[in-house]
Amino acid sequence: LRPPAGDPDKGEMGLGAVPGRQAAFREGLALAVQYARAVECPRIHLMAGRVPLGAERAAVAGEMETTFIENLRYAADILAQEDMIGLIEPINSRITDPRYFLNTPHQAAAILEKVGRPNLKLQLDIFHCQIMDGNLSRNLETYFPLIGHIQIAQVPGRHEPDSPGELNFPYLFQLLESLGYSGYVGCEYAPRGDTVEGLGWLRSYWESRGLQHGETRKTKE
Known about the structure:
Blueprint: H1 22-39, E1 43-45, H2 57-81, E2 85-88, H3 105-115, E3 120-125, H4 126-132, H5 136-143, E4 147-152, H6 169-179, E5 185-187, H7 195-198, H8 200-208, E6 219-220
Parallel strand pairs: 1-2, 2-3, 3-4, 4-5, 5-6
């Protein structure tokens, strides 16, 4: 679950790191907590937002990081009262969103260290991580202690894991299991056709592991 992402007419996609929008971030967080409480969702994605139009990333990076850290500490305190986890997700700036402020797991890890709150975690979308940095095995191993949620999609088409592309998902799933990941895997992809038929990749994965449906790691569509 995530708070309102700001004003779409102004090109906003998240407010966490956007200077001058702290009040709106807090209002959105309060609303998201209400929804999360109602649907019993323990994790909230705290979107960083975009570099303002007309600004150079390097020129505003320091101010945006300071704003993000301030907002994340505020959010961590609110979420701790609800026994909830806050998540920050790097979104690639090469294909998906050139102006998104948080774009690599390295940047996210550095910010989480500066914030220093145990109920803030990394939402690692393997699609974005592959596009920005690759080196997935080492990145998963390195950042595993920080990970609170995993998302998947094939690269570059952002379709089902068994669609043509760069990534070997059976290997990555087994790596996650070997690391002890017990959370959900979010299917953040655009189905090539019918959604249910598109889940054939999951049934095939279960069968390849000799499992009956539902005996593998939790997977959320």
